[in-house]
């Protein structure tokens, strides 16, 4: 079992990951290449870290 601090940080981490993926998909559909590239790089680094 995780202590309450570990649980809270784990939930926050996955919330940030979820928001990153959501923003990436929205930006990919928006058509702005610079924003799309930046968000894809952020997702790639998050996946590499995880």
Overview features:
50 residues, mainly alpha
What is the alpha-carbon Rg in Å?
14 Å
**How many domains make up the 3D coordinates?**
1
What general outline do the C-alpha atoms trace?
elongated
Task: List low-confidence stretches.
Answer: none
Computed structural class: mainly alpha
Tally the helices: 2
- Percent of residues in beta strands: under 5%
Task: Quickly describe the structure.
With 50 residues, the protein is mainly alpha-helical. Helices cover 88% and strands 0% of the residues. The mean pLDDT is 78.
Structure description:
This protein has 50 residues and is mostly helical. It has two helices and no strands. It has helices at residues 4-30, 33-49. Helix 1 (4-30) packs antiparallel against helix 2. It is elongated, with a radius of gyration of 14 Å. The mean pLDDT is 78.
Helix and strand arrangement:
Blueprint: H1 4-30, H2 33-49
């Amino acid at each position: 079992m995780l202590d309450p601090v570990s649980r809270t940080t784990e939930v926050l981490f996955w919330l940030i990951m979820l928001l990153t993926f959501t923003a990436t998909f929205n930006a990919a559909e928006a058509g702005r290449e610079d924003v799309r590239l930046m968000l894809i790089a952020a997702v790639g680094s998050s996946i590499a870290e995880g």
